[in-house]
Amino acid sequence: MTPSMAVSKLRSPLQTPLLKRGDVWVKPELWQWTHSVKYRMVHAKVQQALEHGRINGRTTLAEVTSGSTGAALAYVGRLLGVPVEIHAYSSITPKKRVQIEDSGAHLVLHPSSVPVGKLLKELQARMSPGRYWHLGQFDRQSTMASYEGLAIELVAQLREQGAVPRAFICPVGTGGLIQGVGVILRKAFPGILIVAVEPQTHASIDGTRNTELHHFGKNDPYDRGFPDRVVRVERPEKALSIGDVIMGESASAALALACLELGPTVVVAPD
Fold first, then answer.
1. What domain range includes position 114?
2. pTM above the 0.90 mark?
3. CB 247 within 8 A of CB 213
4. Backbone angles phi and psi of 132, in degrees to 5
5. Contact at 8 Å (CB) between 16 and 117?
6. Closest CA to 192 of 146, 234, 226, 150
7. Tens digits of residue pLDDT in 99-115
8. Which residues pair with 128 in a beta bridge?
9. What is the dihedral angle through the alpha carbons of 238, 244, 248, 253, rounded to the nearest 10 degrees?
10. Total count of domains within the chain
């Protein structure tokens, strides 16, 4: 299988719509192929690896993830017909577990007491050209770059609707999304306020993290100095919606904040 043949098996990310609710514009990535924005990141990284010959028909795609990244990588592996190995914590949600396993990936569960850094080191030690390929969602620069297409698409849609947002609100998971999109929004709309949404210390919101409690220091993909403001919120009591589009947990948390009179605001809803 040549690189071009392999790339042709991938499904390009869907162009999701830009919805409006009052002064808030929301881009619902739950309409993406695997129902989350992570498909864009996985697609970009896998396509690049295929084009450079780092993945072939015998390569195992691997990553440490308990969420949407794992579901997206498993789906891409099925499209390509190559094995996928996902390392996750035993606390993984039943929904994500089913999504990953239904795509045929090998799911390896670990106790939550094992640090993510240790799992990553063990996985990276097994990497070898042609046999194992590591997605690298925790690499800052490549993960940020993977969202460039989304950012360009979003800016075009905002301009088409005559929108000039004063704020960009985004949940923080690995941090690639808010940084990758935020960099381009700052260029397109000078002065825009970048607001990071994180869970409170005692709260848990699917797909997000409190970066005061969970951060790898200098090796973390997320620069805590990037956003203009960090707002830590409670877990949403219910899913919010725009019309008949029901948001996921992290998206609902971001949308609830956006509706608090911040003026014209844009939200990328990850799930």
1. 41-138
2. yes
3. no
4. -130, 140
5. no
6. 226
7. 999 999 999 999 989 98
8. 132
9. -60
10. 2
Q: Tokens for 39? A: 């498909």
**Is residue 266 within 8 Å of residue 185, measured between CB atoms?**
yes
What does the alpha-carbon distance between residue 125 and residue 118 come to, in Å, rounded to a whole number?
11
Q: What is residue 124's DSSP assignment?
A: H
CATH code for the domain of 114: 3.40.50.1100
Return d(Cα 223, Cα 29) in angstroms, integer.
Answer: 23
Look at residues 123, 138, 153 and tell me which one is the last residue of a structural domain: 138
Query: What does the pLDDT look like over 37-93, one tens digit per residue?
Result: 999 999 999 999 999 999 999 999 999 998 899 999 999 999 999 999 999 999 999
Distance in angstroms (rounded) separating the CA atoms of residues 266 and 93: 28
- The span from the CA of 123 to the CA of 206, in Å, is 24
Residue positions counted in the chain: 271
Cα distances (Å, whole numbers) of residue 146 to 98, 136, 177, 196: 26, 11, 9, 19
Render pLDDT for 151-171 as a digit per residue (tens, 0 to 9): 999 999 999 999 999 999 999
- β-pair type (19-21, 24-28): antiparallel
Nearest to 236 by CA among 248, 246, 226: 248
Let me know: does 50 contact 6? Beta carbons within 8 Å.
Answer: yes
